[in-house]
């Protein structure tokens, strides 16, 4: 791609996603200055990545949000290893590991929200409540085969959503 066209595409990417990216990072950091720093670093990395435009529209957005999330986690981990504070709260090493877990759960819950109600209900019952196929089938008044099918296709859809977000590899 020619340089002027690449610059125009990256400028459109920034205009389309900068506000939402800033809100996303602010929810993670609870610190406006840290959020601004992370967003700027993510956008700078997008600008420098020669292969970013190969991902396509949704892929570029997913890449940007994944980079921002990883930058936030890296900041928490580095501050925790130096026993520094982030924002108003002091972070201990065990808490830094917990923050990555919380971020992962938030991303999975967000991805679950994109599934159909039927798929989400079966996945939640099986994986979050630890219930068996027969128990789920009885509660939902559907055949066990339908429960198995919804689990299979629901997990498959969940994997695709997470791939689009850049969380997992294809």
From TrEMBL:
Q: Which GO molecular-function terms appear in the entry? A: DNA binding; sigma factor activity
Its GO biological process terms? DNA-templated transcription initiation
Entry keywords, A to Z: DNA-binding, Sigma factor, Transcription, Transcription regulation
| Keyword Transcription among UniProt keywords | yes
A single Pfam family it belongs to is: Sigma70_r2
Q: Which residues form the RNA polymerase sigma-70 region domain?
A: 13-80, 111-159
Q: Which family does it belong to?
A: Belongs to the sigma-70 factor family. ECF subfamily.
Per its record, how is this protein called by name?
Answer: RNA polymerase sigma factor
Taxonomic source organism: Intrasporangium chromatireducens Q5-1
